[in-house]
Amino acid sequence: MPNISVQRIEDDLLALAKFGFNEADKGIYRQGFTDIDMEARAWVMKKMDGLGMTTRMDGAGNIIGRYGPADKPAVMVGSHLDSVPAGGIFDGSLGVMAGIECIRVIQENDIKLDYPVEIVGTSEEEGRFGGMLGAQALAGCLTPDWLDSARDAGGVLLKDAMAAHGLNHLDALHAYRDKSDLKAFIELHVEQGPVLEASDKSIGVVEGISGVFKWMVRLIGKADHAGTAPMDMRSDAFLGLADFAHEIQRIIDEEGTDRSRITIGHVELKPGFPHTVPGEVDFTIVGRDLDADVMKGLANACQRVLSAIARKHRLKFEYEQMSWLEPQYCSEKIVDMIDAHAKKRGYSHLRMPSGAGHDVQFLARVTHAGLIFVPSVNGVSHAPDEWTHWVDVERGANLLLDCVIDLATD
Questions:
Q1: Is 298 within a domain?
Q2: What GO molecular function terms would the record report (predicted)?
């Protein structure tokens, strides 16, 4: 069977990392629709051009290189090219560079394709403007109202950021790919977590993307003097939060699964003075699971527990659901195919969910879609010290190649 060249992938990833590299912290700063992001996209398109691919940028800023027959549904391969601030060199970029390497190997081995292969570098996956713009556009999950109003944390409107690079934000609505236009979508990505490394597995065969709900919670008590207010007469908002934190594991044990996650990620105490009993605490709760009914059970349990804790500590409990994203399963057909090719290669592998969001969760709505994970050293990602060993990159890219050839040939 043909094999990829991991050296070429390494060279490409290191060259791409120069776009947005910060010498001070060694991180990558390539946020969606910044100048450096668009320069990186132009550079990748040039590489595609050099392989004789037909290239274009769609209305959402996705770059697409197509190779093979013109009149058949495409096998789409890729991931995103933007990064978080101070990100690593693999997140997203690996999937695009490995896809380009698959085209090289197909050409070098003179493999006749019955279906075209498209390499995509999606835009704005990391959520600078609050979504996964490129993948949402491809899946037809955008609205004019959202495109008009989306803005980043600094107040920059998406439409203005796109216009600065000659793009009309409403053209993103024309990036939609009909189901008849795509045969499949495959994404290779670093795990961004510790499971594969801890399990001593080379490959993660992703069964689906966990659903996510996000709450903003407020417990309101009474601010008091820390020296004069007796302990049994306080309405201490922080104690309510502390009690809830201790209940998280019990909630998961009773309502969840080993795939459930509940996280308190941000906390603000008010008035926040050392000598004052906290009269209010605002915090986030983010819950995840691969099963929609389990997610609902977790959310309901959080509400019941918080209500009981509020009564215990004489607090008022309020919450607002900021978002609810349903779980998205990958295609059974693609999951089984990845699994089978991993076995043929003799790669140790594990079927697993993804707790993080990926482009595949939107592409799965319009075509058969699958996701391959390779291990992240110490589970680190979204940081300058994100790392995946080159031998694992090689295995993941070879597995991607096998799947692409399988899908693109009769």
A1: yes
A2: hydrolase activity
